C-alpha cells in the first residue's frame, strides 16, 4: 500500500511538473522570438525540467523495486508457525516460449496438486483465491496461473496473437510442468467462469493428465449466454423503470458484439447484473474485493495496472473468438469426472445452460452441486461450503480408484 501511495504521489508530481515545463518552454520560445527573454524564466525552466527528470527516475525505480519484491506470503498455522513441509512460491516459468507467472501454495508439498484457472479472459485471481480458498491449501498444493494477457503475465505475448488455442497449449504445458515437478501422474483441475470452459477444453484434449474437474460459474454457450444476460438486464431495468440503462442497451443492440468495443458494450449489462446480485440478500458475501486483491503482495505496481488492462484489452480481443463454442455440442463426451458448482442466484452464467449440459454429458461421473446463498462466484460467496464440497467430490474420485 505504501508503494502504491508513493507511486500516485510521484505520478501526480511528474504530471504537474511536465505541464509546468511545457508552459515555461512555450513562454521561453515566445519570449525569445520577441527578444524579451527573462533569464529567470530560463533558470526556472531548467530547475523544473531537472525536478521532472528526478521524479520520473524515482518512479521508475519504485516500479522496478515493486516488481522485484512481489511475493506470496508464507503458509502459517494458527500459532503463526510455518509448517516444515509447506510451500509458498511466486514463480515465473516459460510455457511454449511465453513467460508467465504462477503462485504455488500448500501446507504439504507432497499433497495432490490442484490447478485453479481464473475467469476472464484477461482476469487474474491469484490473490483472490489465496484469500478466499486458503482452506484448500491444507489439502492440496494449490496453483494459480496468470494466463497470457492477464495480471503478471500480461506481456507473455502480444494481445493480438492470443487465441483460445493459446490458453489450451499453455494450460497443458503448465500441467506437464506441475506433474514433473511434484512427481504426479495426474493433477486436479478447477475453473471459474471463463476458466470453467478452458478446464473443459483441457480435460477433453488431455484426459490422461487430470483426476477430475470442477467448474464454477460454468460457461456453456458463450453467444447464448450473452443474449440471455442482455435480455435479463433489460427485463430488470424495465421492472425498475431504469430508462437510462434501457437506452444504453438499445443503443448497443443485442449481442454478440465484435470489434474494439466488446468490453465496454458487454460491461453495460454485465456490471448491471453484478450490481443486481450484490443487492440480493440471499447471496452471502456478494461482490468482489477488488481493492484488497489488487493491493495484495503478489502484484507489483505494473501488475496492478495490468490487472485492469487484462480485463479490458485481453477480454475484448479473446471473448469474441468464443461465440462459436457450445459445450453441449462440442464437448458432450469427456473421459474425466466433471462437477459443476453453481450458485442458485447466478444471473451472469445462466444455470439452465449448465443443467442442459449435464443432461447430455457422457462422463465417468458428473453432477451439479448447488450453493443456495451464491451468485456467479460460490467460491467467494460461500467459501467454507465450497471447499467442503470440493473435498467430497475429489475424495469420491480417490476412493473409486
Q: Output the CATH topology of the largest domain.
A: Rossmann fold
Structural domains: how many: 2
Q: What's the SSE pattern?
A: HHEEEHEHEHEHHHHHHEHEHH
Name of the CATH class of the largest domain: Alpha Beta
Give the low-confidence spans: none
Q: In the CATH hierarchy, what is the architecture of the largest domain at level 2?
A: 3-Layer(aba) Sandwich
Number of separate strands: 8
The total of helices stands at 14
Major sheet: 8 strands, mixed
Q: State which percent range the strand residues make up.
A: 5-15%
Proportion in helices: 40-55%
User: How would the global form be characterised?
Assistant: globular
Distance between the termini: 48 Å
Radius of gyration: 24 Å
Strand order of the largest sheet: 1-2-4-3-5-6-7-8
Q: What would the average pLDDT be, to the nearest integer?
A: 94
Characterization of the model:
This protein is an alpha/beta fold and 401 residues long. It folds into 2 domains: 2-69; 87-222 and 294-400, Rossmann fold. It has helices at 2-33, 39-69, 126-132, 164-181, 194-205, 222-240, 243-252, 262-278, 290-294, 301-319, 327-330, 351-360, 378-381, 383-400, and strands spanning 87-95, 98-106, 113-117, 141-146, 187-192, 210-216, 338-343, 366-371. It has an 8-stranded mixed beta sheet, with helices on both faces. Strand 5, helix 5 (194-205) and strand 6 (210-216) form a beta-alpha-beta unit. Helix 1 (2-33) runs antiparallel to helix 2, helix 6 (222-240) runs antiparallel to helix 7 (243-252) and helix 6 crosses helix 8 (262-278). The longest helix is centred in the first third of the chain and has 32 residues, at 2-33.
